[in-house]
User: Fold these one by one.
Assistant:
Number 1:
Amino acid sequence: MKKVLFSLVFAFAAMSGWAQGIMGKWITEAGDAQVEIYQQGDKINGKIVWLQQGPETKDKHNPDNKLKERKLMGVNILSGLSKSKDKWEGGKIYNPKNGKTYKCTIWLEGNNLKVRGYLGIFYETQTWKRK
């Protein structure tokens, strides 16, 4: 009986950890922003919820002149990611530091989130820490 109870408790704990997965708040590698990853329909997105430079920081590098004056707080920098085995792929990441958007893949590695942006065959990977 104890073995069955232990197995059930362990299974529920494992499932709750998996369910949490990538959802939640993450500090970027530079430590200058916090991104909240959430699910919308069958896609995963991530929006800026904190900025070291403050909540009034504008999207001044955006290539769309109409968006250069918008505040970065609340802007989705991750969008359209779909689960594929142990990764989330097929989405985009927006880099407000240069105003460019890249293809993106993210995955968990231990307690860290790996965030990889692609430009053709070239890529850069960052490690984000859970808040």
Note: The chain has a mean pLDDT of 89.
Number 2:
Amino acid sequence: MKLKVDPTERHTLAVIVDNEPGILARIAGLFTARGYNIESLTVSEVSDDHTVSRVTIVTSASAPVMEQIIAQLDRLVPVHRVTDLTMLGDHVERELALVKVAGVGDRRIEAMRLAEVYRGRVVDATTGSFVFEVTGGRDKIDKFVELMSEVGLVEVARTGIVAIARGREAV
């Protein structure tokens, strides 16, 4: 007899919380204690009075596990609302990366050419290196980093995913 295994899917969650000390640790602890992995995590204040923050979490789980994660997040006291943007439908996801590339001569020219193709912006330059700023979807950033590794990649810093639902309504 074969056991049926639920396939995992990538989900992007928007969690609106009170901006108070320890809330991020409580959310991360919920994932850690239950063995769930967080692939990406971003947090920022979203209210004028700095009392509310938005936490964007990317994780992979089967549908039943995802329901459990959302229910457990909803039960945390400082959580106002949890929205699974993936299940909601159309949404926009972006990430920012800073990519340091070293090189001179032809390698430098190739790095600049590739950055132009990917709409990368030079935010720092020396005679031997560049730091490019690139924004876009995860696949775009991954491909840009892969290409830069062939021309002198030194270091990469990524923000993680931020996401928002399409349409007129707030989630």
Note: The beta strands are 9-18, 40-45, 52-61, 79-84, 91-102, 121-125, 129-136, 153-158, 162-165.
